[in-house]
Amino acid sequence: MSDTLIKNARIIDPRNQLDEVTDIYISKQRIAAIGTAPADFTPNETIDASNLWLIPGIVDLSARLREPGLEQKANIKTEAHAAASAGITTLCVPPDTDPVIDEPAVVELIHHKAKQAKQSQIVTLGALTAGLKGEQLSEMATLKKAGCVGISNSKSSINNTSILHRAFQYASTHNITIFIEAHDPYLTAGGCAHDGPIASRLGLTPIPYAAETSPIAQILELIRGTDIRVHFGRLSCARSIELINEAKASGLKVTADVAAHQLHLTEMDISSFNSQCHVMPPLRSQRDMEALRHGLESGVINSICSDHQPHELDAKQAPFPATESGISAVETLLPLTLKLVDNGQLSLTTAIASITCNPADILGLDIGHLAVGSPANLCLINPTKEWTFLSEEMLSHGKNTPFSGWNFKGKVSQTIVNGKTIFIEE
Amino acid sequence: MVNKATRPTDDLLGQDLWNIQLDEEGQLKHFLTIEGLGSNILTQILDTAESFAGVNTSIKKVPILRGKTIVNLFFEASTRTRTTFELAAKRLSADVLNMNISVSATSKGETLLDTLRNLEAMHADMFVVRHADSGTAHFIANHVAPHIRVLNAGDGSHAHPTQAMLDMFTIRRKKGADFGKLRVAIVGDILHSRVARSQIHALNTLNTGEVRVVGPKTLIPKNIEAMGVTVFHDMQQGIQDADVVIMLRLQKERMQGGLLPSEQEYFELYGLTEERLKEAKSDAIVMHPGPINRGVEIESSVADGPQSVILDQVTYGIAVRMAVMSMTLGGNIAKTNQEDAS
Q1: Which of A33, A125, A283, A298 could join A25 via S-S bond, C-beta 3.0 to 4.6 A?
Q2: What is the Cβ-side half-sphere exposure of residue A218, based on CA atoms within 13 angstroms?
C-alpha cells in the first residue's frame, strides 16, 4: 500500500478547527499525520499542493444515480465519475430506485456497482415503507444491517398518519435516522411552480408554502418529546427554517439540508418557461432564498446537497409543466457553494462544513473531516482558477442544468478516496 | 435567462417574452401572449381587424395568404375556436390542415417535437396551437424552423391572446377607442383562465381606467394584483358601475377539487342575473368567451338580452384572427390592404 505526502496545502478542516498551510501524511488508506511526519514515513508519492486548498472529501446527502431502473438517464459508473471530478467522495442515494431499496439485494447491487466503478463511494438510504407505498413498514433493521445509513420515504408521502408515527418509533428502536423530503401530496398535486406572482402570470399550477411547512409541522409534533432523529432534506421555504429552528431549540434531534440550486435561483428564473429550472420543491421567492442562505450561516440548516437528478434530453424538451423536474447537479455542488463564499453570503468555514463534516454527521459516518486515523478522503481545490461551466462539458450522463454559462472561481484539481486518487485534472 | 451576477428584473422578464414574438424590425412574428407587446402592436391588430371586418360580409376572400399552409394543431378539443381560425385562414386564401391530436397519443411514443418535425416536413408556414399545458406555444415557437410562425390558440391557463384581442375589438366597437374611461370587471374562475390573463394584459396595455377581477378566493390566483387588477370577492361590489362585465366559463370539474361546493351556490353568488346586472352602468355590455353555461355563470335572459354582445364577439373573432395571421405571415401585404381599406 502506497504512502502519500501532500505538501504545502492550505488545509481546511472545519470539524477540527484547522485552517493552515501545512503537510498531510497518508498511510494505509488513512490519514497518518498532519504537520509533522510520523516515524518511519517514506512516501511513495509526494504531491506539491502549494497554492491549493485541501478539504475533506465532499459528502453529498442526496444524489439520484438512476441505477437500477432508469439507466436511460444515467448509471452508477457515469455519475460516480462525475461526482469524483467535482470533489465528492461520498454520495448518498435515496431509495426510489426501481426496484426500490427495500430489501438487502438492492443495497448489495448498488454497493457492488459502486465498487466496480472505483469512483466516489456510495451509501444508500433504505425505504421507510415497503415499495415506498406508505402502507407497510420496511424491514429497517435488516436494511441497516445490509449497509443502509438511514431510511426515507423519498418523494412518496405517507398519508396514513398512524403508519408514519409507528415507522418513526420503529426506526428509532433501531437507532436509525429518518430522512424526510417534506411535501403534502394533495397540495403538490399537478403543481410545478411556487404559488407566487410568476405562477399566477404564467398560469402554472401553483404549489403553496404549506405543501412543505404543514408536513414538517406535523412530523415535529409526532416526534415531540422523543429522541427520534429526523433529517429534513431539500427545504425551500423561509417558514420551514423557523419551524426547524424552534424544534432544535426545544431539544429535538432534527437536522436539515438545502439543495445548492435553491441558494441561487428563484421563481423569477422560470419566467420564460425555462424547463431547466423546473425543480421540486419549486424555486420560491427572493425572500425565501435569502432566508435559506441565512439559515445556513446561522446553523439551522446543516448541509448543502446537490439533489442530483440527471435526465435524458427529452425529459426537459416539452412544455414546462410536462417536463420532468430536477437538475443534474453533482458537478455544480462545490462551485455553487464557493460562489456564496465569493459573494460574501457565507463564511468559508460554514460553507466547507456544510458539504463535509455536517452531512457526514447526519449520515453517522466517520468521514468529512481530517482527524488522524480517519479514511483519507480528500479533495484538492485550485481556489483562484476562474472557469465557465458548460453543460456540453459535463461528465454526468444528464446535461440538464440551468447553470450552463455561469462563471465560477475555484475548481477541483484532485480527488482522493481511501488514499487513492480517483480524479486528477489534466 | 438565468444569469451569473445579476438577477432578471421585471423589465427583462417582459423583454424576454417580447423578443421572441417580434422580428428585428419590431413587427409581429409569433403571437403567443399579450404580455410584452406594446399598445402600438395591439392597436395595429385592432385596426387591421377593422379593415378585414368588411371582408366577412361583402367580399368573401382576399388573396393575402395564397399559397401558404396553415396547420391548426389542436391538442385540446375545441370546435368553435378552431372553426374561426379555419375560416380566417380560408378568407385569406391559405390552405388549412386541421390536426386534432389527443394528448394520450403524444404522451406515448411520439414527442411533441417529433410531431412538429413531421408537420414541418409537410411545408407548413404557420402553426395555430392549442394545448393543455401552459407554455406550449412558447416551447413550439422556440423549436420550429425559422420561417414558421406560431399563433397561440390557448395554452393551459397561460394565454389566449386572440380571444383577448377579439374582446378588445368588441369593447372598442361598442364603447369607443378611449379605454381610459372604462371600468371592466372580469368575473369567475380567474385561476384557471388563460382568457382572463390575456384580457388583463391587453386591458392594461390599452390603458383601461380600472380592471377588476371578481370571484371566490379559491378561484383568484395569488398576487394577481401585481398584474394590475383590483380584486373583489363580492359580486355586487365587483360589478358596480362597470362599463364592461366579462363572465368566464365555469368548468364542471371545479366542483371536484374542492374549489367550489356546487353550481347552484356559485350561481347564487356569482351568476350574472338581470337583477344583478343593474349594479353595473345602465349601458354596460356583457361579454363571455363562450361556450356559455346557462344558469351556472349567466342567466339566459342576460346572455340573450339587449346588453349582451356575446355573438358579436364570435363574429369579430374571424376578423381579429385574419388580422393576426396576415400580420405574422403576410408581411407588408396586410399593411397595404389596411391602407386600401381606410
Answers
A1: A33
A2: 19
